[in-house]
Amino acid sequence: MNSVPGKSPAPSSPEAQRRLAYFNDRKDEIVSTIRELVEIESPSDNKAAANRMADFIANRFSQLGGEVRLHPAKDFGNHLEINFAGKSAKPVLLLGHYDTVYPLGTLATMPCRILGDKMSGPGVLDMKSGIALMLHALAALKDWHQEAVHGGLQRPVAVLLVSDEEVGSTSSRALTESLAKQAAAVLVIEPAHGPQGAVKTARKGVGDYLVKVTGKASHAGLDFEKGVNAILELSRQIEKISSFTDLKKGLTVNVGVVSGGSRTNVVPADAETQVDVRIARMKDAAGIDKKMRSLRTLNRKCKIEVSGGINRPPMERTGGVAALYRQASAIARELGWKLGEAAVGGGSDGNFTASLGIPTLDGLGGVGDGAHAPHEHILISELPRRAALLAGLIEKV
Ligand SMILES: [Zn+2]
Question: In what order do the strands lie in the sheet with 113-115?
């Protein structure tokens, strides 16, 4: 069984003990960084607000000696790339996002609060605590390695914080992929999984489809027979679409939103549905896409149009992913805890990097619950060992 927060066995080496003590001594500083980040609201859909956040983070990273590069985005905040020098050629990429799902003004009703071990606020888990962990892990490495005789990090460190992850990463995807291709490994500092803080070694791929049916409008009383009911046709299609789910393959198809018709006394000419598709394996992508696109009307008088596709490939647990997890769990073991791993249904930008074949480990950020919900929070007591784990991984991959 995993250890309970705050009741961990002692670290197994003096070095691990020293590192954990280092972050325990700085726990309040980490908390105050998180508070600063939470109190600058950064919704994906507000470029001006997001840019304020980008500037604040850029400043913090440059204080640590990072070289900051802003990548302007047309409709979103600027994506933020920061580089730290190292001895070898290939960097380790720390990946995350600074946008949140919360509209501007949310802080008024959902302020940043600390109650016992819980710190709450918009985006505190997803993923402002993750950004704070990056900052404090890098600050620690700077401290530790400047003192060392042969100072400096082995690998250069690249940090990428994008502004549109919560809305599909359309603007940042190419940048994420190009930085990942140059990297030896990608560490994604998204929230950990569950109360024990497992890392994520597999994520499902995600697709979105829009299915539109067109029939023919008519008066439901006077001209009933002249109408062609689009809602009736769509309801038959929904049965078919739902049957594409194959739980054994980890493939799910969810008809999530339906709309159609105008008034009760009109035979409806239009109806549509939005469908969410999840796949565990890339090899299932083409098959489900073909099925969606091959939908044909049962009533020949109706027309059907299907648009969309698979937009995030799955993050599969490749050999490279498993090796990174083994490294992380060895570091955690030294620090005195058993780090679990999890396969989850939700996607992140780690899906893009892993599907390029770059070893990727996700869920290295804060531990808590309620992402995207009013009770979103992190556990403060988890912060020191998460920071120590991240610092250790940056050094060792
Ligand atoms: Zn996130």
Answer: 113-115, 118-120, 377-379, 368-369
